[in-house]
Known about the structure:
elongated
Amino acid sequence: MPSRRELANAIRALSMDAVQAANSGHPGMPMGMADIAEVLWNDFLSHNPANPQWSNRDRFVLSNGHGSMLLYSLLHLTGYDFPLDELKRFRQLHSKTAGHPEHAEFPGIETTTGPLGQGLANAVGMALAEKVLAARFNQPDLDIVDHYTYVFLGDGCLMEGISHEVASLAGTLKLGKLIAIYDDNGISIDGEVHGWFTDDTPKRFEAYGWEVLRDVDGHNSEAIKAALVSAAIDPDKPTLICCKTIIGFGAPNKQGKESSHGAALGKDEVAAARVQLGWNHPPFAIPADIYAGWDAKQKGAEREAAWNALFAKYKTQHPQLAAEFERRNKGDLPADFVAKANAYIAKLQVDGLVVASRKASQMALDAYGPLLPELIGGSADLAGSNLTIWKGSKDVNSSDASANYVYYGVREFGMSAISNGLALHGGFIPYDATFLVFSDYARNAVRMSALIPAHAIHVYTHDSIGLGEDGPTHQPVEHLASLRLIPKNRVWRPCDAVESAVAWKVAIESREGPSCLVFSRQNLAHQPRTPEQIAAIEFGGYVLREAKNGKPDAILIATGSEVDLAVQSADALEAEGITARVVSMPCTNLFDRQPQAYRDAVLPPACRKRVAIEAGVTDFWRKYVGLDGHVVGVDTFGASAPAEALFPYFGFTVDAVVAAVKSLR
């Protein structure tokens, strides 16, 4: 039977070989953390290589994702369907072994990591999901939700500010099944970190309410094992294990140096490392006894079988809970959700309420929330402004078994990345909220929502200069355009309560990625619609008001609060003999995905007189109005004044829109 060190050396060999073959990558971290990974994966991690999606598996997150070869080596060695050829194609086009782990490439990769610190945030979301699901579904002697979340992280993760946001919240939420393992090797890309990172990290995490295990020898298997045993004891405290390691362990001339961090070791150093490690095998060759020592298939099958037996007993005693648990883990919506949501939307159209779209959003939550026990949300200390608390909201930090609301505090970035973790864990549809202008703080996590992809819903209120007196620091101008440019992101800016309810419905249904729902502070006029127009809202853009003769001289395109201005302007134009069509385009991302025939029906190519109206930067709208069209927008920062003064000041008037149309040839 191979020794622990020999098993760990398989990770080192595969990592340095793959990086060398690609002549690109980060061999230092996998070589430095190999001993820790060996103990964790062989002695503690509960998983089944034959079923990477087993719901009660432990989650493993590689927050320091540049060390991706560590994870790829583990998946291959332990028996996942992760062929050696994929390791040989490290960082090559269409391989599963991307430069940083990508969730979409393989189900054994729990999340996409690379932007440092976000993996830790995702892990906090996963641990929170485990805690809330356990409170909801576990019954006496039937703990069907009972697993840990392990996360590897490095100095870079801890230097990023997001680590403070999420570690602080994890301590407050008492996520005792979250175990973070810190690769304390003292090296980053620029060299020894003592010149720019002198925090007392253990004290910092103790202040957050974590259990901290200091100065663990990351190359001593028994010390690592003892630390992991200790980490699981306190049910109310997450644990940080601080492991002292040597980056590039085994490379005699580069270990302990930044030269092993982010580049191939070089053929000579790889050969020297083989000698140093006693690894007398060719590149990518793994002896049979090493494979046998790593093979987790039988152990994984036994663990899942034991859980299946437990769940069978649970299903007999609690059939309704079991059915709900299975539905939520599959990601299926309740069978009656679509019909009830459509009925609610139809009623809103009849009622014709004039409310702020942020209020309409809360109304949608009140309507949909009772139908969706998987809905979990929160706000970055703006619940009273974002209106994210609905009638059934219950604090996840309470003992309520149906808890579903997170008080995130002022942590926009961390909140959004935690939402990604909640979504990836399964069993939840998460939403989070802040002011639109503060989406800047959250933006990289929103980008990761789309890249992963994660079914997270990001709610943004106070969507324009219409928020008024708070002024330019709080008035978003470029944010809508910026969020729309993120591939696979869906940005909704509805014009009234009906479009707001549709936006929520489509966001809930859209499992393939995130949605950003953008709502107003001020009241918005209700718009009349036919049932066909209501159905067309889901296409992202539709004809809201047709020209009287059906042949428009001009087309007005608008979103949100500016849609009613477009309708008023169309009336004024027709009074002067100019026929005008109004197109409401609440989600440009969805409209752009529609068949060309539909888009041409809404925006006929023959009609070149087009004016777009939106309280934001104008460049985005050129693809719809062309260079010969006009955009009524805001290409400067806002101003501090009441909303009713700001809109005319920035040119959002009927007269300005009419003049814009008349100016077009």
